[in-house]
Structure to design on (316 residues):
């Protein structure tokens, strides 16, 4: 007996026919994306091969006199304390941005979810800075935080708080903090994740909390915050990944200084690359190690996404 499924008209469609049609649709979809996959294979996969291949060579920017280096470049990278310091700076940068995202980003999202007049406007307003080029943000804040004529120090002096006017981007103890604090203006992305996850919160839970006499602060942090765990995870992993892509904002504001205090891994590679007689094989080896770290983080993100999807299906 040929199995079939019913349709609204009362007729039935054999399962095999349905599977064949679905397979045909999938093949058609793959044919449409085949050109894009070809471009990906040529540019991305070849670039990856070239990166790894070069990491086992000693060569300069001309690639004219390449000699086999074996694993020596990887050994040199792993013995370089500056490499570890740059990765540590990445983690510090990520930690600061994560803290801003899951505190300020969460608070602003919950506040705007109250649906008061103009809430949609302010929601869009917070997202606009996240769409601006990093170079523009870096330039503007470099001018604002400039010691002598910067708007922030001028504001403090106008209030008679001259002792608080600091060299925000020239002091090794303040430069990294200043760069991280600018992340407040980039909370549009975490707000997007929180807004999407807030729609999945069961309103009956909130209504029960209100009936039990819970205040807004308690509802927000003891009930809503734990329920948005999927958004928290996504923001944390995404911020970790973005820290390894970060370059222009920090480089244009501090150049990795002062005294290498803000030198993250991308700036570390750039500074070595532009040095006289730089060994491109060394840069490729360091880049490969950073790529492995990024892929490991991406794998964790994928596992969390699949797990969250299964949890949502089981809850439904």
């Amino acid at each position: 007996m040929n199995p079939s499924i019913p349709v609204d008209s009362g007729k039935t469609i054999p399962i095999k026919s349905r599977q064949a049609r679905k397979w045909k649709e999938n093949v058609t979809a793959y044919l449409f994306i085949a050109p894009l996959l070809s471009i990906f294979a040529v540019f991305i996969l070849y670039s990856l091969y070239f990166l790894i291949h070069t990491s086992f060579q000693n060569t300069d920017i001309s690639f004219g006199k390449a000699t086999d280096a074996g694993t020596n470049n990887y050994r040199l990278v792993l013995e370089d304390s500056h490499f570890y310091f740059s990765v540590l700076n990445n983690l510090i940068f990520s930690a600061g941005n994560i803290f801003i995202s899951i505190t300020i980003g969460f608070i602003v999202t919950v506040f705007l979810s109250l649906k008061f007049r103009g809430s949609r406007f302010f929601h869009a307003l917070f997202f606009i800075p996240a769409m601006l080029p990093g170079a523009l943000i870096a330039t503007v804040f470099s001018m604002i935080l400039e010691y002598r004529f910067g708007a922030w120090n001028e504001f403090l002096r106008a209030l008679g708080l001259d002792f608080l006017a600091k060299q925000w981007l020239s002091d090794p103890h303040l430069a990294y903090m200043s760069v991280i604090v600018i992340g407040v203006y980039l909370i549009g992305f975490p707000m997007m994740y929180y807004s999407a996850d807030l729609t999945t919160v069961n309103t009956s839970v909130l209504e029960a909390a209100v009936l039990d006499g819970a205040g807004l602060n308690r509802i927000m942090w003891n009930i809503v915050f734990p329920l948005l765990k999927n958004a928290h995870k996504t923001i944390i992993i995404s911020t970790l990944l973005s820290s390894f892509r970060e370059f222009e904002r920090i480089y244009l504001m501090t150049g990795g200084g002062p005294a290498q205090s803000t030198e993250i891994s991308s700036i570390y590679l750039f500074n070595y690359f532009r040095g006289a007689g730089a060994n491109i094989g060394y840069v490729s080896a360091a880049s490969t190690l950073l790529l492995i770290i990024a892929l490991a983080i991406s794998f964790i993100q994928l596992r969390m996404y699949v797990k969250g999807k299964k949890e949502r299906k089981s809850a439904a």
Notes: The mean pLDDT is 84.
